Amino acid sequence: MRGLTAAVVLGLTVVFIACDRASTTDVPPPSGETSPGSPTPLAAAPGNRHPEDPFWVFSQDLDASLRVGDVQMLIERLRTRTITCTEADVPPHIGGPECFVVGDTFEGFSIGRWRSEGGVVPVTQVVEQLRYLSTAVRRDLSDPYGTGTIQVFALNSQPQRHVAIITAIINSPPGFGGASTIRVSFGTYWTLDGDVWRLTGLMTNYIYSGEFLEPTPEARAGLFPAWERFAP
Amino acid sequence: MTIYDNFYVYAPVSGQITALDYYCGDGYHPRNYENVSPIDIGGGGGGSLIFKASSNVKSIHIGHWSLCSGYGSPWSDGVYVELYSAEGTPYWAKFGAVYYGHVANRAAESWPNYNGSSVTLGTVPSSCPCGVCYNPCCEGDDCWCTPICDPCNCCYQGAHSHFELRNDSPVSSVNPNLYCGKQMYAGDSSSWVYKWQVAIG
Questions:
Q1: Which pTM does this prediction carry?
Q2: What's the CA gap between A136 and A50, in Å, rounded?
Q3: Looking at the complex, does the CB of residue B142 fall below 8 Å from at least one CB of chain A?
Q4: The CATH classification of domain A10-17+34-229, taken from the options 3.40.1180.10, 2.70.70.10, 3.10.180.10, 3.10.450.50
Q5: Out of B32, B138, B162, whose CB is closest to A19?
Q6: Averaged in consecutive runs of 10 residues, what is the pLDDT profile of chain A (232 residues)?
Q7: What does the CA dihedral B9, B10, B11, B17 come to, rounded to 10 degrees?
Q8: ipTM for the complex?
Q9: Which residues of A touch B26 (CB under 8 A)?
Q10: How far A62 CA sits from the closest chain B CA (Å)?
């Protein structure tokens, strides 16, 4: 996959930032099996309640793009940095870059996995994940959180923490047992770079997706203290 | 004729599997030293982290180790448990070990070798509150990884237990029926994670 890096990165708008690196089975509802039908969705806030907030305004465009299954707006705004694997990075360790060979280089992106760990992965992996969303989305399904359509579900807009929480129902990726579909929720982390919003981090949540959509005290305290339901 | 016995270790917390050899959804799941078969299970912050094995495990030894260098305690604290098939932890009866990461209030390393197959190792840490602990990859507001609630962003993202199998035994294996999202129950024999098939006579 590393061989794809250059080709993929050429297609991205990439900003390099200098920073020293010191270094259905039994998936329970509502994140579990989904079904066709029209359940009562959790109430969404009416309209943009913060028209003065540039992040809310931007998120309306993002939501509109996602709702038609287009994830390009995420991909083209990924902000990466070049990782050169050192001896200290190999083999990969928890929290570090995904390095297997000393001297290897790749465009890295910071990723986290809720109720697990994170690190810096080749941006190609992130692009693959985002594209999988658009190909595996199940718009025909719904659950208490709404339809399966990719959409912005909530926002956390604070000066140093602009997060758009997106969600979708998708066909399960490999490795998820007998669950044919799952609801996923991702925290997408943004920063305003000049007049362009850049995607600087991603917190994936394939297992406990409901905790981003009805934030638990832990998710709220640790990730989204200013969580607010979004509706276009 | 050689006689074999199967020894099992069960899940240390109740919750769903969020990572096996690969993180659920993406990416290689690192393991430490030359250990194998790392597993993450989402668990409640502050809840007990237990070691429980099948009753034919007759004694254990507890030691400390570290992971996530630079991130601070308790997220970087670990406990390992060596397993023995006879009481008193005789060297000839040792057959394997399990390494647990992210352990708060961890059991003392000086714990006397313990006869039995069940003990509390510590508790599951809560998530790091934003701004509390040090993130070694970030400096300054515009740092590339700042926007993810940094503190422990790379090491510990939500309450969970990480554990891995010490790869010094040719007779060990991981439960082949585990998968992403599978519900596990702490200490329950239906939720075994590792197995050793050991010659006992």
A1: 0.86
A2: 32
A3: yes
A4: 3.10.450.50
A5: B138
A6: 40 33 32 45 63 94 96 95 90 89 93 88 95 97 97 91 95 91 95 90 94 92 88 78
A7: 90
A8: 0.88
A9: 111, 113, 121, 125-126, 128-129, 204
A10: 18
